[in-house]
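Suppose a colleague, Dr. K., hands you the sequence of a protein chain of 423 amino acids and asks what its three-dimensional shape might be. Before reaching for any lab equipment, you can write down a predicted structure in token form. Begin with the sequence itself:
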Amino acid sequence: MSAAVQPIEPIMKPFGRKAHAFITRHPKHDKKYTIAEGSVRSSKTFMADAKVIVQYSQYEVPGKRFIAGVSKDSVMRNMLLDLFAIVGRDAYSYNMQTGELWLYGKQYFVVGAKDEASYKKILGSTIGVFIGDEIVEFPKSFLAQVWMRMSPDGARFLGTTNPGNPYCYLKSEVIDSPDFASRLEVIHFTLADNPNLSDEAKSDIVASQSGVYRLRYIDGLWVVAEGSIYRDSWDDKLNTFDEPPLGLLSPGGYAGHIDHWYAVDPGVDHVQAHGEFYDDGRIIWLTREQCWDSRAERKQLTDGQYADMLETFGAKGCEVRLPPEAASLRAELLMRGFWVVDADNAVNEGIHTVSTMLAKRAFRISKTGAPRTYKRIPTYAWDDKAAKRGEEEPKKQEDDECDMVRYGLHGKVPAWRVYGTGG
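The predicted structure, expressed as tokens, is then:
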């Protein structure tokens, strides 16, 4: 008797009412601009994929077609991987270097919109279809250029986003603007709009967020980030430890199944901070720190002296995560045979990673081994003046150890482990 064949889980899963109504509606009946905003894991991006497949790829409109994200890599990760899996290899061709995509015989251009210079990537283009992912992260100059270039009759814009600062350009000058009101549809999504998430998965997602991130990514609210950054995710007992757990360390340095690395926040006229991290697969432990305060010591060290410190600290032979702008220190470390890896220095995304790992109690700090970091994390604060300008950034004071933690976690810990998985 042959074994029963297990059914294959379908790639295209059911959609909620809001997503289904938008996907099945012909673009000629859509507003010129559509923004899907709201909570994480609520099917906004998957809806955009389906709209591209079901509608835009058959929609005839003059002008070029663009798919944009913070970077081409983020577009691939957030949209194209699922899209390609659904349509099959014969339906598309994609050049990752140039960003040229052919889908069902239609040409698209995939571009990144990370900084103010990104608008140059669409200069001279007449735009017929524009799909944007994470559009709250797009600079004003880029979005303003998109609006100007969507001149053909029937041109359509679809953007997806989680809520952010209510003073930012997207919220204050687009979503809330009377100038866009007649031509803009905003579709608000919550976790309840994704029928593919179990109650357990939804509970895990809710539990992973705290503070401003819970208000934005779970409740779907546009709120200002203010006060202590990690106030609602930090617990003085559950995010700290006095002694490493048994099995984390061994006489040879660390157990074979434990990942071990270091992170560096370079200092010129401020503190240089080094941190030692261990990962047992469930919890990441910051066991030790090493700092040099050039102001307090009244002496700025050379790159060679910082390299000496790291060698004494035990970092040689392990991965050392260093922000890419620290070019001279990188060169010194590489010359000495250190294993140097570019840390992801995205500030807000990094803060979100740290906040989520703290809220999940998946990151802990040694009170005795890393006393400065233990002291700084609870007092790390948002810059109120920047928030009123529609920008979000932490105060640039006593933040060196917090930056070091960011470099140690963000980009090192995979997104599925930080945020979980789901439809």
